[in-house]
Amino acid sequence: ACHLMLRVINGAEILSGGGIGDAERALRDLFDQGRAFTRQSNRHVFCLFLDELDALCPRREASGRSHSRIVAQLLTLMDGVDASTNSRMLVFGATNLPHSIDPALRRPVVYVPLPDQDDRFKNVCREAALLALRENIHMEEIDVRHFQQALLLTSPVSSEESLETFQRFHDKQGAHD
């Protein structure tokens, strides 16, 4: 069995300390926590999810010295992940503004597009089946209301315009697939 620890951190949370060096210290503490967890066993995996990465790591030329130090610290910590954790530490970042993130952090990017029509259909079917199962473990039929509920749960939350912006950004950056 694999033991997974997931830490979800909002970029603004890291910045909330306010003091000089607090954000860098918070990042080091998170990575130290990940290294300590992965050392417990070769079956331990640590996932760090940094939400709103654009708030934490804006382009250095467009931000102040404190943000430059934060970007440099995160890059240094990420460079040391493979060696110190035998690749059992994963760092993910999410943003709605990929063009606002410092270019050095965009280099190792893997672009994950939205699912296509076929995958969306499969997601709705899976969600409908799970809804029926959760509702009554002995139910043998999945009916229309389960699909209606599943459609509500899997509906897109991004506009077509914003999706096109992400695709243009991906095409321009040449992110790795």
UniProtKB/TrEMBL annotation:
Residue ranges of domain ATPase AAA-type core in the record: 6-107
Record PROSITE patterns: AAA (PS00674)
Alphabetical keyword list: ATP-binding, Nucleotide-binding
Gene Ontology MF annotations: ATP binding; ATP hydrolysis activity
InterPro entries: AAA_ATPase_domain, ATPase_AAA_core, ATPase_AAA_CS, P-loop_NTPase
Pfam families in UniProt: AAA
Protein family according to the UniProt entry: Belongs to the AAA ATPase family.
Protein name (database record): ATPase AAA-type core domain-containing protein
Organism per entry: Aphanomyces astaci (Crayfish plague agent)
Higher taxonomy: Eukaryota, Sar, Stramenopiles, Oomycota, Saprolegniomycetes
